[in-house]
Amino acid sequence: MAEALSRSWDFKGSGEMLLIDKPLDWSSFRVVRRVRTLFNVPKAGHAGTLDPKATGLLIVCTGKQTKMMNQYVGFDKEYVGAFELGVRTASHDSETEILERRDYSAVTLDSLRSAAEKFVGRQLQRPPMYSAAKHHGKPLYIYARKGKTIEREPKEIEILEFEIRSFASPLVEFRVVCSKGTYVRSLVDDLGGALGCGATLRALRRTRIGPFHVEDALTVDELEMLSVELVSEQRIYETGVPA
User: Fold this and answer.
1) What is the CATH number of domain 2-74+210-239?
2) How many whole angstroms separate alpha carbon 66 and alpha carbon 238?
3) Does the active-site annotation cover 110?
4) Considering 51, 93, 189, 190, which one is annotated as catalytic?
5) Whole-prediction pTM value?
6) How far apart are CA 225 and CA 206, in angstroms?
7) Neighbours of 131 (CB within 10 A)
């Protein structure tokens, strides 16, 4: 935070590219709205959606920097997280209730790692119904919440790394590096299907987007502190009187 306060900012001229650590249960668009409000900028957007149940690195651009968002979206991404064996949900994560339970007693750390290794590489993945992917201009989750299922075209993705870090039955900790457009919770659901017991994502954190790391990101609280500091500096500049 000290580094952020010590540098100069230009939200209303050239714009800014912000690294933000998205909180749990916040939508990506809620973060964008907060940036617009805090820094009084009419134009802002994010480069790569994070689900509300995920935390971690979100790139938000303001002003002229929004022209760079497509470049940032194209970078590979790294996530760490945990999933639960033996359960399946409609959303493939904790957003919806458990649909079914299956026996997972035959699963071992070796079988997990062997199954995960088979998902490394290029493949087709179908967007989940509980997602922001659009159908006739509306996010799929709107249809899903009404109990409707829409036919979705699979898209090519690439899993660069899929590491099973630990297994404390029924929870599995993992790390994955993947291309843009990858739904990690769908990957977890597919892995559960390959194991024959089902699996549901329980925690997800994005740690990297291309060369940018979450360790360098600002929290929402720090963004608010930065906003207060910038307003104070502007008042001093305009009046010569400290706030």
Assistant:
1) 3.30.2350.10
2) 28
3) no
4) 51
5) 0.90
6) 23
7) 20
